[in-house]
Design goal:
The chain has 156 residues and is mainly α. The chain contains eight helices and no strands. It has three domains: 32 residues, no CATH class; 79 residues; 39 residues, no CATH class. 74% of the residues lie in helices and 0% in strands. Helix 3 runs parallel beside helix 6. The radius of gyration is 33 Å and the shape is rod-shaped.
Length: 156
Amino acid sequence: MVDVQVHSAVGCGLYARRRGLARLMPRVGRGFETAQEDEDQRETENKSFKILYKAEIEAMVNRKQEYESNIGMAFALLYGQCNKAMQHKIQARTDYESAIKGNPIELLKAIKEHSISYQENKYEMHIILDAMRNFINLKQADDESLIDYTARFKSA
């Protein structure tokens, strides 16, 4: 009995084939709805999906706004926890303005890089030689402003 209804349900048209046998199984016992009832059901499903979609978009926009407001506070908190020497080391980096400033993840990477640096464990003459080499090779980049170059010059 069920096999006959399932076979007739599968062969009833394009809509039944699209929906698949799994969607038709609950309908086997009660017969098929009219085309109008089926269309009304699809419209109500579409309306509920649109409402759900709008709610998800609104939630995503709220999360994005919260993220953008919190990212600046996270950067300020992390940067404020650094001592002055670490802040100067980070500001002296060439990629500070482009990559690190305002980005707490890149700031954490820079802090890790400077805190693990073996500069303190090097020989004193090697540190002096590196500082002199950095000072001698210091020059203003083509796209660098005078204020940025002066800050970099003072830190070198």
